[in-house]
Inverse folding.
């Protein structure tokens, strides 16, 4: 195989965004050959916008059986990601899924099992991993430059969304349509990077507000506290109801602290590690000498196109190590969001791995008892450029 024929499932904002760079020939070794959506009007509009000789399908069954594609990009509402991924794998296709991997971990575990059985390339669209700043922080933490991590804190309230955003999508902001709010829609990228940087915690305690700032039934404000096996702690704070918002990630370790904010990395480096200073210093009120270092990082990062290009390279080379994010890792960020919601629902600590059956049962209770009614007359396809 010298070219991968790609089909996109979902012709909304993200489906069109992926289709645009594929149709423009920006991904070497890839060709956009098919587009699928049950909404005939949206499908026709997207196909016309993308141009070229693109086959259109109104059912996934038909597209998977068409012989027109070797791989699919899934860009549908969250609940459909696992089932569509499983169907694609069983049809012998490679899969790249939009975030999140699913809504609850039990369904994503099934997706991961299907991917492993298929032997096909499975990637998640975690494009934030491609950004130079994030790669530099990952390198610093893995190199041991900061020493043992003691604490981390991420405040990401820069996801402000007005009511019109929720009104524009008939599936958004409900337990049945989206399965969650800010944790499931906006924060999968930060949750993925959080565990990418610091690893998975051992337990979570979270407080979530549901429809605090918007006419929605899902969470739009979250404060979570986590504990790690090595004794380190962390906090994660997010909201879609604050303006102006903040995006600040701080990691404190034995050798100082690193802050990522305003597209910059700043390292306050202890000349003497804190644990060593603590044991040796006899002056009472002293503290280690600190050097403030501005850490250089490049501004590279192809975002979505880079993740797709890496996936295509992995397919052509039959080498999963070439992918930006192996699809099996998608369950990690979802585990964190599920744990936060489960903690809020039960008003208790949640140990990881979570009780997947309990979470699904409580989610289903909220779906079944929902009285939330949405005016779908305002639904429309929005331009998602620049919203990532």
């Amino acid at each position: 195989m010298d070219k991968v024929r790609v089909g996109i499932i979902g012709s909304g904002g993200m489906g069109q965004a992926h289709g645009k760079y594929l149709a423009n020939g920006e991904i070497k070794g890839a060709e956009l050959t098919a587009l699928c959506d049950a909404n005939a009007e949206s499908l026709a509009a997207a196909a016309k916008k993308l141009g070229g000789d693109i086959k259109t399908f109104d059912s996934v069954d038909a597209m998977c059986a068409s012989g027109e594609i070797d791989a699919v990009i899934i860009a549908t509402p969250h609940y459909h990601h696992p089932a569509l991924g499983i169907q694609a794998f069983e049809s012998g296709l490679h899969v790249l899924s939009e975030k999140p991997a699913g809504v609850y971990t039990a369904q994503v575990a099934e997706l991961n099992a299907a991917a492993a059985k298929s032997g096909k390339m499975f990637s998640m669209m975690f494009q934030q991993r491609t950004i130079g700043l994030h790669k530099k922080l990952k390198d610093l933490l893995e190199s041991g430059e900061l020493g043992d991590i003691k604490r981390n804190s991420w405040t990401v309230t820069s996801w402000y969304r007005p009511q019109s955003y929720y009104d524009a999508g008939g599936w958004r902001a409900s337990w049945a349509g989206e399965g969650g709010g800010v944790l499931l829609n906006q924060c999968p990228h930060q949750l993925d990077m959080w565990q990418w940087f610091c690893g998975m915690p051992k337990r979570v305690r979270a407080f979530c507000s549901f429809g605090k700032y918007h006419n929605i039934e899902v969470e739009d404000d979250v404060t979570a506290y986590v504990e790690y096996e090595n004794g380190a702690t962390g906090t994660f704070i997010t909201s879609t109801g604050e303006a102006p918002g903040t995006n600040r990630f701080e990691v404190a370790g034995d050798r100082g602290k690193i802050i990522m904010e305003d597209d910059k990395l700043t390292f306050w480096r202890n000349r003497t590690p804190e644990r060593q200073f603590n044991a040796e210093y006899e002056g009472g009120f002293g503290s280690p000498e600190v050097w403030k270092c501005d850490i250089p990082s490049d501004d590279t990062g192809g975002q979505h196109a880079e993740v797709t290009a890496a996936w295509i390279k992995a397919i052509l080379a039959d080498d999963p190590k070439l992918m930006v994010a192996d699809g099996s890792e998608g369950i990690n960020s979802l585990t964190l969001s599920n744990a936060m919601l489960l903690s809020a629902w039960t008003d208790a600590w949640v140990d990881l791995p979570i009780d997947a059956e309990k979470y699904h049962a409580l989610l289903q209770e909220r779906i079944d008892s929902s009285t939330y009614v949405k005016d779908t007359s305002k639904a429309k396809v929005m331009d998602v450029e620049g919203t990532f």
User: Anything to note?
Assistant: The chain is about 35% helix and 20% strand. The radius of gyration is 22 Å.
